[in-house]
């Protein structure tokens, strides 16, 4: 009876020691930290790939003369020689 109780206590002590060793291990903490960093970097890499695709598309557009003209008209308010530009004030909230 005592040996059975002793074996049971010994089993729990061994499990507790193993858990303590695993949790206090610098190697395990380092492994988890590195894994989390790896996942973060993978996510960042996919974001950068999407951004690169958008930038390449923008670059193709910038090389197009019509796109440059449209951007100059829209963003800078430029017009061709002899053209008139009409600007209207946006309606007020009370006019709607």
Record keyword descriptors for this entry.
96 residues, mainly alpha, elongated
The overall pLDDT average reads 85
Sketch the major β-sheet.
none
Number of strands: 0
Low-confidence residue ranges: none
Order of helices and strands: HHH
Indicate the proportion of strand residues: under 5%
Query: What percentage of residues falls in helices of 4 or more residues?
Result: over 70%
Instruction: Using the alpha-carbon principal axes, give the shape.
Output: elongated
Gyration radius (Cα, Å) is 34 Å
Output the structural class.
mainly alpha
- In DSSP terms (H or I, runs of 4 or more residues), the helix count works out at 3
Number of domains: 1
Q: N- to C-terminal separation?
A: 91 Å
Write a structural description:
With 96 residues, the protein is mainly alpha-helical. The chain has one domain. It has helices spanning 2-24, 26-62, 65-76. The model has no long low-confidence stretch (mean pLDDT 85).
What is the secondary structure topology, with strand pairs?
Elements: H1 2-24, H2 26-62, H3 65-76
């Amino acid at each position: 009876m005592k040996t059975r109780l002793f074996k049971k206590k010994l089993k729990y002590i061994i499990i507790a020691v193993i858990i303590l060793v695993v949790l206090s291990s610098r190697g395990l903490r380092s492994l988890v930290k590195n894994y989390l960093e790896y996942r973060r970097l993978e996510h960042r890499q996919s974001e950068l790939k999407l951004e690169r695709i958008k930038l390449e598309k923008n670059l193709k557009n910038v090389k197009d003369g019509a796109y440059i003209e449209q951007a100059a008209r829209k963003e800078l308010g430029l017009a061709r020689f002899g053209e008139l530009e009409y600007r209207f004030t946006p309606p007020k909230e009370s006019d709607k």
